[in-house]
Amino acid sequence: AADGGVRRVGSDGLNAYLAEIGGSEGFTAKTFRTWAGSLAAFEAHLANPDGTLGAMTEAAAARLANTPTVARNTYIHPRVISLAGTGEAPRLYQPRRGLSRSESALLRILESGA
Fold first, then answer.
1. Contact status, residue 59 vs residue 43, Cβ threshold 8 Å
2. How remote is the C-alpha of 16 from its chain's centroid?
3. Cα–Cα nearest to 107, from 96, 59, 20
4. pTM of the predicted model, to two decimals?
5. Residues 35-67: pLDDT tens digits?
6. CA 58 from chain center: how many Å?
7. Cβ distance 51 to 59 under 8 Å?
């Protein structure tokens, strides 16, 4: 609060704020959870490109404090899921400013549709 006091913030208020600063009504708290879940699954794949989808969803579930089923169905981008079991580790490039190498690689995959 402007007076320095604590104010309760609900999900509607938070999502309205995120939409305002993000410039889109579609930008919500779920956007951050999807990014975190996708990143956790992607990093599990990077650590073991021959790993299973189960290992990827478990990593996302652990990061988000959800079940693997909820993580897979709600918080892991389909392009990340498609990497499971391929044995191919995406190339890591020089990170973009403010992002880790794995975040930069994930963003490249999501932007390119690869």
1. yes
2. 20
3. 96
4. 0.85
5. 999 999 999 999 999 999 999 999 999 999 999
6. 14
7. no
